[in-house]
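sry for the spam today, last one i promise. C-alpha cells for design, 174 residues
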C-alpha cells in the first residue's frame, strides 16, 4: 500500500499564481479599553498570462493577514487584453490622488515602471511597457490606478475601427 502523500502547491493547477507581498502595515483601533493592534497586508497576485488582482487583508497576526490578502487578490483577479507582451494602446487611470499612464513599447524595451505598478505589470505577464506614476506615491492607490488603466484596455481592431486611424502600437498584426 502506498503511503499517504500530501499535494505540493506546485502540483495543483490553480497554484501557478505569482504572489507578491507589497506592504505590511501595523494598524491600531482605538476602543474604550485602549488601543487594539492589528496588521494589514497588501498583496498583488497574477498568473503571468494576462490575469491579475490585488487584495488587502487585516488580522491580528501577519501570516493570517497575508493569507486573507492572497485569497482576496485571487478572487478579484480579471483578464486583461494584452497583445504580444504589451498593452494595445495608451491608457490613463486615476484612483484617489494617484494617476498612472501606461504606454505600449517596442519589443525588447522591458518593463519601465516603478513601485507597485512594476510588480503588478510583471505579475500580469507584460514584457514591454512604459508606465508613469504621477501624484501620490501610495502603493495601494497606484496599484488601483494601474488596474483601472488595464481594465480600460480595448481590443486593437475595435479601437482602430472606432478612431478611424492606425494606433501607435509597435507590434505587427499577423
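last one done:
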Amino acid at each position: 500500500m502506498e503511503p499517504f502523500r500530501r499535494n505540493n502547491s506546485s502540483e495543483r493547477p490553480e497554484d501557478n499564481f505569482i504572489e507578491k507581498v507589497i506592504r505590511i502595515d501595523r494598524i491600531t483601533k482605538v476602543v474604550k479599553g485602549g488601543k487594539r493592534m492589528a496588521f494589514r497586508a497588501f498583496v498583488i497576485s497574477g498568473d503571468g498570462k494576462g490575469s491579475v488582482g490585488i487584495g488587502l487583508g487585516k488580522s491580528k497576526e501577519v501570516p493570517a493577514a497575508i493569507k486573507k490578502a492572497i485569497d482576496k487578490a485571487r478572487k478579484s483577479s480579471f483578464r486583461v487584453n494584452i497583445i504580444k507582451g504589451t498593452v494595445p494602446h495608451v491608457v490613463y487611470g486615476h484612483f484617489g490622488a494617484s494617476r498612472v499612464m501606461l504606454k505600449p513599447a517596442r519589443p525588447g524595451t522591458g518593463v519601465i515602471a516603478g513601485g507597485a505598478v512594476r510588480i503588478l505589470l510583471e505579475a500580469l505577464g507584460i514584457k514591454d511597457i512604459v508606465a508613469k506614476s504621477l501624484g501620490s506615491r501610495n502603493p495601494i492607490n497606484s496599484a488601483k490606478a494601474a488596474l483601472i488603466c488595464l481594465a480600460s484596455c480595448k481590443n486593437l481592431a475595435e479601437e482602430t475601427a472606432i478612431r478611424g486611424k492606425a494606433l501607435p502600437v509597435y507590434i505587427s498584426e499577423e
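The first helix runs from residue 62 to 75. ok im logging off now
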